[in-house]
Amino acid sequence: MPSDETSYDVLVIGGGNAALCAAISARREGARVLVLEASDAFWRGGNTRHTRNMRCAHDAATESLSGPYTEEEFFEDLMRVTKGRTDQDLARHMIRESKTMLTWIEEQGVRWQPSLGGTLSLGRTNSFFLGGGRAMLNALYRTAETLGVEIRYEAEVTALEIADGMFLSATVNGETLRAKALVAAAGGFESNIEWLKRYWGEAAENFLIRGTRNNKGTILRLLLDAGVQEVGDPTQCHAVAIDARAPKYDGGIITRLDCVVFGIVVNKHAQRFYDEGEDIWPKRYAIWGRLVAAQPDQIAYIIFDASSLKLFMPSLFPPISASTIEGLAEKLGLEPAALRETVDGFNAAVQPGTFDDKVLDDCRTDGLDPPKTHWARRIEEAPFYAYPVRPGITFTYLGTRVNEEAQILMADGRPSANMFAAGEIMAGNVLGEGYAAGIGMTIGGVFGRIAGREAARTARGNRAQGTIAAKEATDV
């Protein structure tokens, strides 16, 4: 039976990429580390289970990367996708630190697959995990356990004792756990539909949660209630258009649709509502969840023809098809005449160009509102296809403010004496809006490693202070 009160050097709350990087980093600094994972062992790892890659700056091609990706280019990409809504100093710090992450992660047992080609256009910027996110997680867990990190499953934290910015203890299944330092790496609140509804209203009922069902925001709420400074817009999130036939939770990567750029997207009234060719897909795919969320009934349909069928990675579910546009509309529950009018108007606006899905090509529309600025081709080759899509929420951006040491900042601006954060729970420092493929894993890996290291050093300092105090008391 566990004791009523157990003490550790570093307590890590969470079980995904950020948490494991923090735990390993702290343990390598000599700390006694406990990881608390709310799920059971099968579902461990939160959203990391569904990931595939990490975006890091690097100066030259490697076995897993086809060319260099400089710090400045990374920063420019981040500024573009966030529209400047980022803590620039913290973002540059993260990007600098990311240059050593690929090697560090590999040293923890993670393996990379050869440089990726194909339609995602990520072979130069992103390294892909051999075996995917679950294999990556398994490697980190093996390393953590080999190093002596203690891991508890089905260990949901229900209370945090925090006094004047200092973490004292956590309550888990009725047990009080004390630690000299805390790393919060427990994700956002995307699985808490009631919390989402505070900002989105009833529309949130139609959201699908493509990641874990366990990210209810409990730790975030406890920290904010204890006087931690918040960061980020609660309505901003990583939200992509996913197959509307996906399950409510844990649909993962196989329900995401990468075919927006190859066709048009219409709402329930068969009307287009945004430029499908605005930019290279990895820099724009994460805006489409929010765009669909703003449409009536939070539903939309990606329409394309036979010429585009094999240009993208398909969903788990097959596309809906028909030999005519009107027949496709009927299967989708759309007004046939309205969809025909939209398709005809789009086709008439398409200008001649050279199609190339790997660059910003010159295939565009003219005189159409909204325009399609790249990859615009007439939809005319039967059979015609469609995917129904809904907003797929991956993680939220409201979180805890941190500094370059991953220290949590209190509402008055003071750094906490012994609390650190990493991963989705602090992603809003870097992501004010928008997303670039793989950057969530960058945030988790970089700040996880920093948080673990700094938490261990803080704990070591606290141990030293405690030893001195005890000796002084004995001398007296």
From TrEMBL:
It holds the Pfam family FAD_binding_2. One of its GO terms (molecular function) is oxidoreductase activity. Keywords: FAD, Flavoprotein, Oxidoreductase. It comes from the Bacteria. The keyword Flavoprotein applies. Residues 9-431 form the FAD-dependent oxidoreductase 2 FAD-binding domain. Gene3D superfamilies: FAD/NAD(P)-binding domain, Succinate dehydrogenase/fumarate reductase flavoprotein, catalytic domain. Its cofactor is FAD. This is Tricarballylate dehydrogenase. It comes from Enterovirga rhinocerotis.
